Amino acid sequence: MQRTNSIVQPPVFGNLITVLSIDGGGIRGLIPAIILEFLEKELQKRDGDEARIADYFDIIAGTSTGGLITAMLTAPDEHRRPLFTAKQIKEFYLEKCPKIFPQDCNRITKIVKTISGPLYNGKYLHEAIRKRLKDTKLGDTLTNVVIPTFDIKTLQPTIFSSYEINEKPYMNAKLSDICIATSAAPTYLPPHYFETSHNEKKREFNLIDGGVAANNPTLIAMGEIAKQLIHKNGDFPLPQSFEYRRYLVISIGTGECKMKGKYTVKEAEKWGLFGWWSNTNGSTPLLDIFTQASTDMVDFHLSVVFKTLNLEKNYLRIQEDGLEHTLSPLDRATSENLDCLLNAGENLLTKKVSTVNLEDGKFVPYRMETNAEALKEFAEKLSEEKRLRDKNLSKADQSPFLETKPGFEATEKISVA
């Protein structure tokens, strides 16, 4: 079960299990890019300019645009360091989004195009991804990743997890194919077909956007770790790994429009097929509904679990629920909208740590500190954990008589609750 390519020392050498999750949301991926840039800078303050996000997380999960960010954070360059810094990911979005989603037609033309096929052909996106990721495969990532997609032939979610490629080598697909697949939002971009081959046996994939299965992939990431515990992966000490106090989880959303309400019954009662698929503000109501429902349910579940266990500071959900209507579409890549998304991401850092209230759908503050302050605390914990693991690994390497990896019992100094 253990991977050999990861640059992150396994949890057995430390105290924590670290998880990063990034939602889907098209061009709104700019928001988590800004949050990650801030976190990476905080890590660099503690561990030097070469510190990268991938150095600190046992698993990074991403859906759709979050899957693309996950790949960019973890794909290796020729020196086996992350291909992109968080800042470069932000710049990639600003440069490429207007070409991926060209704003060259009006609403009527868009409706006509959507009737006859996907709104965008995806060629520029595919070329941009393949150019940067080249032949990198899932198993080459610098830490463990999990990226959900959905197979329209089997009508089942297909989860690409680097943890599972030893048991399922046919899942070791090119990272570019996985990114193209998880980003293939229905009506916006075409589905993606590809094949993998192992021992002369081919496996075919007929995939669309992972957001239809899990727009917020945090639970999928934690589920992948749980499977490793079931299989008694030696990278995780047992039974301590089953304890939630060992988890340090950051979940980043791409923003949503809820503060003033996006749709009303009075408006929706007149909708037919076209109304549900294309709103007057350029959004897609049905797509918004099924992606946002799963997103908030995951946050609600984890918020309750961590709060019940008095571990609220081990779980950080950063989400903007007050986007303007014009910012919510996945594809409105105008210069004005991109600038507004940048401002939304930067302003989000100054807002109080919040969680979703399922009664009214709004985010309510539950801690006095801002998201920026919480990220600084997480950066400190992540840095301490990395130093602890490196230290314990060094001790293990220096002891020729050490038969097993150190467990949590020997390293109880850091308090995470």
Give a verbal description of the structure.
With 417 residues, the chain is of the alpha/beta class. The chain has one domain (11-398): Cytosolic phospholipase A2 catalytic domain (3-Layer(aba) Sandwich). The protein contains 13 helices and ten strands. The strands form two sheets. Strands 1, 2, 3, 4, 5, 6, 7 and 8 form an eight-stranded mixed β-sheet that branches. Strands 9-10 form a two-stranded antiparallel ribbon. Helix 1 runs antiparallel to helix 3, helix 1 (30-47) crosses helix 12 and helix 2 (65-74) runs antiparallel to helix 6 (175-182). The radius of gyration is 21 Å and the shape is globular. The two termini are 29 Å apart. 47% of the residues are buried.
Overall tally of domains: 1
Give the fraction of residues assigned to helices.
Answer: 25-40%
Our estimate of the beta-strand percent is 5-15%
The Rg value, from CA coordinates, equals: 21 Å
The description of the largest β-sheet is:
8 strands, mixed
Distance between the termini: 29 Å
| Low-pLDDT segments | 401-417
Q: What's the number of helices?
A: 13
Q: How would you spell out the order of helices and strands?
A: EHEHHHHEEHEEHHEHHHEHEEH
Q: Can you count the beta strands?
A: 10
Overall geometry: globular
| Structural class designation | alpha/beta
Overall pLDDT metric = 87
Question: Quick one: CATH class?
Answer: Alpha Beta
